[in-house]
Design a protein that fits this description.
- By secondary structure, this protein is mainly α.
- It folds into 2 domains: 11-76, no CATH class; 96-154, Arc Repressor Mutant, subunit A.
- It has 6 helices and 4 strands.
- It has helices at 26-34, 44-53, 82-95, 98-108, 114-121, 125-137, and strands spanning 65-68, 73-76, 141-144, 151-154.
- A two-stranded antiparallel ribbon has the order 1-2.
- Helix 5 packs across helix 6.
């Protein structure tokens, strides 16, 4: 997003909840206000902070970061679900057998290679080959197409 603070100040040095609102273009603000495309002037920073703080997984270290350098305005919104999703995936993986995990990964992405599977599972390629051979022999998976451009069908 371009366009630093109107007065040239640095937003990161201010109390975000008390940044004064100044119109850059009063004509545009009036037009957007009349069209009801603009809410109350000066409420954006507070709304962003309030919305983040209201989230269940919010932590102070994940607070949005506002930054300006005189010409540009940057806002960093951290993914509040990242650590949670990582923990959930790890917990789910620990409850699955290697065979179940291969089936899940192939359902999500049928074009995965054995090398990719071994990296994702943190297993040797040989281990993945043996597991996939078992799954093939039992008819739980099937290879569709060639080795290079084919995909896996999970039955």
């Amino acid at each position: 997003m371009t366009g630093g603070m109107f007065d040239g100040s640095e937003v990161q040095l201010q109390d975000i909840r008390h940044v004064p609102s100044k119109l850059r273009n009063p004509i545009l603000a009036d037009v957007f206000g009349r069209m009801r495309l603009m809410e109350r002037r000066g409420s954006g920073f507070k709304k962003i902070l309030d919305a983040y703080e209201a989230e269940e997984r919010y932590k102070e270290e994940l607070k949005p970061v506002f930054y300006t350098d005189g010409y540009n305005f940057f806002l960093t919104l951290w993914n509040l679900n990242h650590a949670y999703d990582k923990a959930q995936n790890k917990a789910q993986k620990s409850q699955m057998t290697d065979r179940e995990y291969i089936l899940l990964l192939l359902k999500e992405n049928p074009s995965l290679t054995q090398v990719e599977l071994s990296e994702m599972m943190d297993k040797s390629r040989r281990t993945v080959q043996m597991l996939m051979k078992e799954l093939l022999d039992e008819g739980l998976i099937e290879r569709i197409g060639s080795k290079k451009i084919g995909s896996w069908l999970v039955k």
